[in-house]
Amino acid sequence: MGHLSTHVLDTMHGCPAAGMAVELQRIGATQVQTLKTFTLNRDGRFEGGALLDAASMAAGRYRLVFSVAPYFRLRGVVLPEPPFIDEVKLDFGIADADGHYHVPLLVSPWAYSTYRGS
Predict the structure, then answer these.
(1) pLDDT digit string (tens) for 24-50?
(2) CA–CA distance from 105 to each of 14, 34, 44 (Å)?
(3) Cis ω before 104 (30° cut-off from 0)
(4) Mean pLDDT value of segment 71-97
(5) 11 CB-near residues (< 8 Å, 6+ apart)
């Protein structure tokens, strides 16, 4: 009954990163496959709940690409060109397809942090 989820918090404004564009990719031996592109909802989450549900979970390497600079520009933040952080690319592994993998991101225009959540 495994699944993958994410949650993004905007630490500059102290709120969920509603409207941020995100891409989920599977990293293969010779290619990267885009599985899903989406925009975070008002709670900073994928509207559909799980990015990968029990039926689509598989062991392997994955990447979440968070469009950080475009999000902050939409919020009216003036950023240098090029921005310090444009995209955050988080590569992670799923070893147990029956496990729950939650990938939170705390982000500002100048810093980010992530961990395996619950």
Answers:
(1) 999 999 999 999 999 999 999 999 989
(2) 13, 20, 10
(3) no
(4) 98
(5) 106, 107, 108, 111
Structural domains in the chain, CATH included, are: 3-114 (2.60.40.180)
Residue for token pair 């921005």: 83
Dihedral sign of CA atoms 71, 32, 113, 41 in order: positive
Q: Give the containing element (helix H, strand E) for 95.
A: none
In the predicted model, what is the mean pLDDT of residues 55-77?
Answer: 97
Of the candidates 18, 1, 19, 17, the one whose C-alpha atom is nearest the C-alpha of residue 9 is: 17
> Which residues are paired to 112 by β-bridges?
107
Q: Phi/psi zone of residue 60: left (φ > 0), alpha (ψ -120 to 50 degrees), beta?
A: left
Q: What percent of the chain has pLDDT over 70?
A: 100
Tokens of 30: 């010779």
Helices (H), 16-117: 68-74
Do you know the residue count of the chain?
Answer: 118
- Reading the block at residue 20, the tokens are 């941020």
Given a contact cutoff of 8 angstroms between Cβ atoms, the answer to whether 99 and 73 are in contact is no
